Amino acid sequence: QPPAADALYQAWGGKAGIRAVMDDFVPRLAADPRTAPFFVKTDRQHLAAQLTEQLCQQAGGPCAYQGPPMKLAHEDLEITRGDFNALVEVLQQAMQARGIPFAAQNAMLARLAPMHRDIVNSSR
Ligand code: HEM
User: Fold this and answer.
1) Domains plus CATH for the chain?
2) What is the Å distance from ligand 1's center to 6 Cα?
3) I want to staple 56 with a disulfide (CB 3.0 to 4.6 A). Which of 21, 35, 61, 116 is the partner?
4) What is the ipTM score, two decimals?
Protein backbone atom coordinates (compact mmCIF):
# COMPACT_ATOMS: atom_id res chain seq x y z
CA GLN A 1 0.00 0.00 0.00
CA PRO A 2 1.59 3.32 -1.07
CA PRO A 3 1.93 6.14 1.49
CA ALA A 4 -1.01 8.54 1.65
CA ALA A 5 -0.56 11.73 -0.39
CA ASP A 6 -0.66 13.75 2.81
CA ALA A 7 1.64 11.47 4.86
CA LEU A 8 4.26 14.21 5.20
CA TYR A 9 1.59 16.71 6.29
CA GLN A 10 0.44 14.26 8.96
CA ALA A 11 4.04 13.59 10.10
CA TRP A 12 4.44 17.33 10.68
CA GLY A 13 1.33 17.40 12.86
CA GLY A 14 -0.89 19.10 10.29
CA LYS A 15 -1.18 22.83 9.84
CA ALA A 16 -0.79 23.57 13.57
CA GLY A 17 2.42 21.55 13.67
CA ILE A 18 3.80 23.38 10.64
CA ARG A 19 2.83 26.75 12.13
CA ALA A 20 4.60 25.87 15.40
CA VAL A 21 7.83 25.19 13.50
CA MET A 22 7.46 28.42 11.50
CA ASP A 23 6.86 30.41 14.70
CA ASP A 24 10.17 29.03 15.95
CA PHE A 25 11.96 29.39 12.59
CA VAL A 26 11.19 33.04 11.82
CA PRO A 27 12.65 34.49 15.06
CA ARG A 28 15.72 32.28 14.55
CA LEU A 29 16.13 33.75 11.05
CA ALA A 30 15.96 37.23 12.56
CA ALA A 31 18.55 36.27 15.20
CA ASP A 32 21.13 34.25 13.23
CA PRO A 33 23.90 36.65 12.14
CA ARG A 34 24.02 35.02 8.70
CA THR A 35 20.35 35.56 7.89
CA ALA A 36 19.36 38.46 10.19
CA PRO A 37 20.33 41.25 7.74
CA PHE A 38 17.69 40.03 5.28
CA PHE A 39 14.85 40.17 7.80
CA VAL A 40 15.36 43.56 9.50
CA LYS A 41 12.12 45.04 8.13
CA THR A 42 10.14 41.82 7.92
CA ASP A 43 6.62 41.44 9.33
CA ARG A 44 7.32 38.18 11.18
CA GLN A 45 3.67 37.19 11.62
CA HIS A 46 3.04 37.62 7.90
CA LEU A 47 6.14 35.65 6.96
CA ALA A 48 5.30 32.80 9.38
CA ALA A 49 1.76 32.64 7.98
CA GLN A 50 2.95 32.63 4.35
CA LEU A 51 5.59 29.98 5.05
CA THR A 52 2.97 27.86 6.80
CA GLU A 53 0.71 27.95 3.74
CA GLN A 54 3.59 27.08 1.47
CA LEU A 55 5.01 24.21 3.51
CA CYS A 56 1.49 22.88 4.12
CA GLN A 57 0.94 22.78 0.35
CA GLN A 58 4.37 21.22 -0.28
CA ALA A 59 3.62 18.54 2.34
CA GLY A 60 0.41 17.54 0.55
CA GLY A 61 -1.87 19.29 3.03
CA PRO A 62 -5.12 21.12 2.25
CA CYS A 63 -3.51 24.52 1.64
CA ALA A 64 -2.88 26.75 -1.34
CA TYR A 65 -0.04 29.28 -1.02
CA GLN A 66 -1.43 32.55 -2.37
CA GLY A 67 1.66 34.74 -2.12
CA PRO A 68 4.06 35.90 -4.81
CA PRO A 69 6.04 33.27 -6.71
CA MET A 70 9.45 32.53 -5.15
CA LYS A 71 11.39 34.23 -7.93
CA LEU A 72 9.42 37.46 -7.50
CA ALA A 73 9.45 37.36 -3.68
CA HIS A 74 13.25 37.19 -3.57
CA GLU A 75 14.36 39.06 -6.68
CA ASP A 76 15.59 42.23 -4.94
CA LEU A 77 17.45 40.40 -2.17
CA GLU A 78 20.78 39.23 -3.70
CA ILE A 79 20.68 35.76 -2.13
CA THR A 80 23.72 33.51 -2.55
CA ARG A 81 23.97 29.73 -2.30
CA GLY A 82 25.66 30.31 1.09
CA ASP A 83 22.69 32.38 2.27
CA PHE A 84 20.33 29.63 1.12
CA ASN A 85 22.34 26.96 2.95
CA ALA A 86 22.36 29.11 6.10
CA LEU A 87 18.55 29.36 5.97
CA VAL A 88 18.30 25.58 5.60
CA GLU A 89 20.52 25.12 8.68
CA VAL A 90 18.31 27.48 10.68
CA LEU A 91 15.25 25.54 9.51
CA GLN A 92 16.91 22.31 10.66
CA GLN A 93 17.42 23.88 14.10
CA ALA A 94 13.73 24.83 14.28
CA MET A 95 12.52 21.40 13.10
CA GLN A 96 14.77 19.72 15.65
CA ALA A 97 13.60 22.04 18.43
CA ARG A 98 9.96 21.25 17.63
CA GLY A 99 10.56 17.50 17.51
CA ILE A 100 9.82 16.86 13.84
CA PRO A 101 10.90 13.27 13.08
CA PHE A 102 14.18 13.16 11.17
CA ALA A 103 12.72 11.44 8.09
CA ALA A 104 9.96 14.07 7.93
CA GLN A 105 12.56 16.84 8.24
CA ASN A 106 14.49 15.45 5.30
CA ALA A 107 11.41 14.85 3.19
CA MET A 108 10.39 18.50 3.61
CA LEU A 109 13.91 19.72 2.80
CA ALA A 110 13.86 17.60 -0.36
CA ARG A 111 10.65 19.36 -1.48
CA LEU A 112 12.05 22.83 -0.73
CA ALA A 113 15.54 22.30 -2.18
CA PRO A 114 14.59 22.76 -5.87
CA MET A 115 13.34 26.27 -5.02
CA HIS A 116 16.99 27.37 -4.85
CA ARG A 117 16.78 27.85 -8.62
CA ASP A 118 14.26 30.66 -8.14
CA ILE A 119 15.70 32.08 -4.90
CA VAL A 120 19.50 32.09 -5.28
CA ASN A 121 20.15 35.03 -7.57
CA SER A 122 23.61 36.30 -6.62
CA SER A 123 27.15 35.01 -6.34
CA ARG A 124 28.31 38.28 -4.68
C1 HEM B 1 13.41 27.13 0.29
C2 HEM B 1 13.75 28.31 0.78
C3 HEM B 1 12.81 29.46 0.94
C4 HEM B 1 11.44 29.49 0.98
C5 HEM B 1 10.47 28.32 0.88
C6 HEM B 1 11.05 30.87 1.14
C7 HEM B 1 9.74 31.31 1.22
C8 HEM B 1 9.34 32.61 1.36
C9 HEM B 1 7.99 33.07 1.42
C10 HEM B 1 6.75 32.18 1.34
C11 HEM B 1 8.00 34.41 1.56
C12 HEM B 1 6.79 35.35 1.69
C13 HEM B 1 6.48 36.04 0.40
C14 HEM B 1 5.39 37.08 0.61
O15 HEM B 1 4.34 36.73 1.11
O16 HEM B 1 5.61 38.24 0.26
C17 HEM B 1 9.38 34.81 1.60
C18 HEM B 1 9.84 36.10 1.76
C19 HEM B 1 11.13 36.45 2.05
N20 HEM B 1 12.22 35.61 2.00
FE21 HEM B 1 12.20 33.66 1.54
N22 HEM B 1 12.16 31.65 1.19
C23 HEM B 1 13.26 30.84 1.08
C24 HEM B 1 14.57 31.23 1.09
C25 HEM B 1 15.01 32.47 1.47
C26 HEM B 1 16.39 32.82 1.70
C27 HEM B 1 17.59 31.87 1.49
C28 HEM B 1 16.41 34.12 2.12
C29 HEM B 1 17.57 34.95 2.54
C30 HEM B 1 18.57 34.47 3.27
C31 HEM B 1 15.03 34.59 2.14
C32 HEM B 1 14.63 35.85 2.50
C33 HEM B 1 13.33 36.32 2.41
C34 HEM B 1 12.95 37.68 2.73
C35 HEM B 1 13.88 38.79 3.22
C36 HEM B 1 11.57 37.77 2.48
C37 HEM B 1 10.68 39.00 2.62
C38 HEM B 1 10.15 39.11 3.99
C39 HEM B 1 9.38 40.41 4.09
O40 HEM B 1 8.19 40.42 3.75
O41 HEM B 1 9.98 41.38 4.52
N42 HEM B 1 14.21 33.56 1.73
N43 HEM B 1 10.18 33.71 1.47
Assistant:
1) 7-119 (1.10.490.10)
2) 24
3) 61
4) 0.97
